[in-house]
Each structure stands twice: as C-alpha cells, then as structure tokens.
Amino acid sequence: MTIALWILNGLLALAFVAAGAMKVARPKSALVASGMGWADDFADPTVKLIGAAEVIGGIGLILPLLTGIAPILTPIAAAALTVVMIGAVAVHVRRKENATPSIVLAVLSAVSAVVGFLVVL
C-alpha cells in the first residue's frame, strides 16, 4: 500500500505544484487569456493564494513522508487539497464550465488522504 501511496502522491504533487506555480507566477490576465476564465471572478491576490495553497499542498504530499519528519502531515495535505478541489468544482459548476478535471483531482486527493492515514497510523 505504501508503493501505491508514493505513486499516487508523486503524480498528484506534479499536478498541483505545476498548476499552482503557474497561478503564482503568471498575472491574472494571462491566466484568463489561457483559458482559466474562473480567475476573472477573483481578485489577483486570491488567485495567487489558491496557487500557493496548491504548491504547498503538493510539497506536503511528498516531503513529510520522504523525510520521516511528521509524516502525518502527508495525509493532512491530501485532505486539504481535497477541500481546495471541492471549491474548484463548485466554481466550475457555478460558471457552467467542465468540472471533470477538478472532480478527478478531488477524488484522487481523497483517496490519497485515506491511504495516507492507513499507512501512517
């Protein structure tokens, strides 16, 4: 089960760190122009905060388990990312956009949280 957790968390970490870094690094207007219309509904600092939460959560999926320092933080990070993605689903549904990627990431994050708690505890 530990191997499955590492594979899942590795893939999730890549997705969240990449998406979050893009939100942090690019201006809101560039995000909207690239197809992230939802960003137009939020202030620029809020978009940056969402990106930072994704980056920190992605790092939290890997680093605590890798170092052995407070490994309980790994499933907590997965649970927090699940909450972030539930918010993303709500925004996409409200805007009548495709919410499938957000739903998939929410479900995978929830699975990571459950498996993580089973492995760590």
Give your account of this protein's structure:
This protein is mainly α. It has one domain (2-120). Helix content is 80%, strand content 0%. The chain is built from 5 helices and no strands. The protein has helices spanning 2-25, 28-33, 44-67, 73-94, 100-120. The two termini are 13 Å apart. The model has no long low-confidence stretch (mean pLDDT 96).
Could you give a quick summary of the protein structure above?
This protein is mainly alpha-helical and 121 residues long. The protein contains five helices and no strands. The protein has helices spanning 2-25, 28-33, 44-67, 73-94, 100-120.
Instruction: Please identify the structural class as seen in this structure.
Output: mainly alpha
Can you tell me the residue ranges where pLDDT is under 50 for at least 5 consecutive residues? Answer: none
So what's the overall shape? elongated
Mean pLDDT: 96
Order of helices and strands: HHHHH
**What's the story with the biggest beta sheet?**
none
Report how far the terminal alpha carbons are from each other: 13 Å
Instruction: Compute the number of helices.
Output: 5
State the share of residues found in helices, binned by percent.
over 70%
Global Rg: 15 Å
Q: Count structural domains.
A: 1
What percentage of amino acids are in beta strands? Answer: under 5%
Strand segment count:
0
Give keywords.
transmembrane; mainly alpha
Q: Secondary-structure map with pairings?
A:
Elements: H1 2-25, H2 28-33, H3 44-67, H4 73-94, H5 100-120
Helix pairs in contact: 1-3, 1-5, 3-4, 4-5
Main location: membrane
Keywords: Membrane, Transmembrane, Transmembrane helix
Membrane topology: Multi-pass membrane protein
